Input
Amino acid sequence: MVLLSNDVQALTEFVETEQFLLWDELDRELKHRHRDTWSQYCDIAVCRIVSSLRFVNPTPNDRLPWRLLAGGIAHTIIQQAGATFEPVSEWEWTKLDERMGMYGGNHEYMLRLYEPTRNEIRRRFAQGRFTGEHCKW
Output
């Protein structure tokens, strides 16, 4: 494979956009799975997110899908990948909970709801599912 451009800014923006879209894809997949915790497609999305974290910072909290942020899924993935993230302040949680409460949830509810999913993510990281040979296409 040959790098066709040395425009670092354009490459960075591309990877940041791709990571943002991957969070959205993971969110949609988890939404469609309802109470099931995981799927092969989730594995693929997380592999690609983890790969992108080698090149750019994590997507900012205010651009993450609410379900992944409030459920602790995004921060679990970022943390397990060895990257750092900006924690959400209590003031921000209050504002988010007010806005999202009308849709049937708040931060505490989402943390409880997605605890099995976070545990599955940790288990898969421990198995090396999101690094090495498992994530090569």
In short: The CA atoms of residues 71 and 112 lie 8 Å apart. The chain has one domain: 8-135. The chain has a mean pLDDT of 88. The chain is about 60% helix and 0% strand.
